[in-house]
Amino acid sequence: MHPMVKPALRRGWRDLNTVQFGMTPAHAMTLGPMDTATGSFLDLLNGTRGLPLLRDEGRRMDLPDGQVDALLERLARAGLLDDTRGGGPAADALRERTDALERLRPDLASLTLTTPEPGGALGRLAARGAQRVQVRGAGRVGALLASVLSGAGVGEVDVRDVGRVEPWDVAPGGLPADSLRERRQDAARAAVRRAAPGRPARRARSTRAAAAASAGTDDPGLSLVIIAPRDDVAVHAPDPFAAEPLLASGTPHLYTGVVEGTGVVGPLVLPGGTSCAGCLHQDRADRDPAWPRLVAQWRSGSARRVGACDLALATAVAGVAAAHALAFLDGASPSSAGTRWEVSLPGLTWHSRPIWPHPACGCGAAERGKGEHSSTDGEPRETMAVRRPSPARRREAGVSRPTGTWRAHV
Ligand SMILES: [Zn+2]
User: Fold this and answer.
1) What is the pLDDT of residues 14-42, one digit of tens each?
2) To 5 degrees, how large is the angle CA 177–CA 183–CA 184?
3) Is the dihedral of CA 396, 397, 399, 400 positive or negative?
4) pLDDT in tens, 204-213
5) How far is the CA of 221 from the centre of ligand 1 (A)?
6) Does the pTM of the predicted model rise above 0.90?
7) If you measure from the C-alpha of residue 339 to the centroid of ligand 1, how many angstroms do you get, rounded to a whole number?
8) 368 CA to middle of ligand 1, Å?
9) I want to staple 266 with a disulfide (CB 3.0 to 4.6 A). Which of 57, 137, 271, 340 is the partner?
10) Distance of CA 310 to CAs 146, 178, 316, Å?
11) Domains observed in the chain
């Protein structure tokens, strides 16, 4: 192990024997008491030294026996320590791809903020490389979102759409102006390839495709499907029938898009666990008896050639949706699970609309148990006395804190 105090967190002394790691309430921690000599030793924890050398340095600095190991243990338990050699074989393979890793350095640093175990951040970043995501819809939201996922290290991002690129599909980060009149799907896939850090692993991809073809399945092992329709009715009233194969195969899926002047992110559907498009439809019908009648009219109305879609709003929605997707792929439980986030022009305040599992929906989420909140953040629970933050704050962090550390109220 080559320990490193997570460099993503800025360090400062709150007083003579209390160190604060980080600036923002979401991730800042304070650690104390810590004497000045031990505090100076923190500078040596930069990932360049192994344990034996660090113990030697500790002796040279007259730290008491065992102090170095105790400090490392404490930092590790507080989630403040990274390991520049850790993360497992996939992380080792990514370290070899220096070009890709240089591109992803800010993303890696960010992952250290949400990954408590030393070496875990690079492990999770490497794991993105094995994920398969399908994006349905290559408009202003879908094409950009797919490119962002690719640029963030997701190994395979497949985009599905029909038709050809129209002038109004073009957006920075999405479909480029020189792709006009190309097949929309091909242009989006090309944008995804251009966004990828480093070269794509073509051989692995074609091997998987061949395996899928021989197994007679269309989408084997998709980690996530993102439904980002260009059609505003499909964004506003997602079609439950279209999602049935995803529910049947247990494929997680996320809805997003722009409808009129409103951007939508969510719900993220974990089949049988959280509410789905069917639950959303039933819930809407409960609240507004005219809903089914309106939806039928909207769907049968003549398709508009060019709907409203503010470029900045679409860009923001694509970014937020990509962040929710990445959080899910990285093993967390983003707030879009069972919730639709909406933001409207021109105020641009995000609102959450919880969507409860509906008993009349066949997806099974309602039977799974009312009020049950499952979390995929499988962090160990601490049993020692801890200065606990508020339950809401703790849920946000997904991690309990060990003795002597607490969230900074900054
Ligand atoms: Zn449902």
Assistant:
1) 999 999 999 999 999 999 999 989 999 99
2) 65
3) negative
4) 455 455 555 5
5) 22
6) no
7) 13
8) 11
9) 340
10) 19, 21, 10
11) 3-85 (3.90.930.60), 129-354 (3.40.50.720)
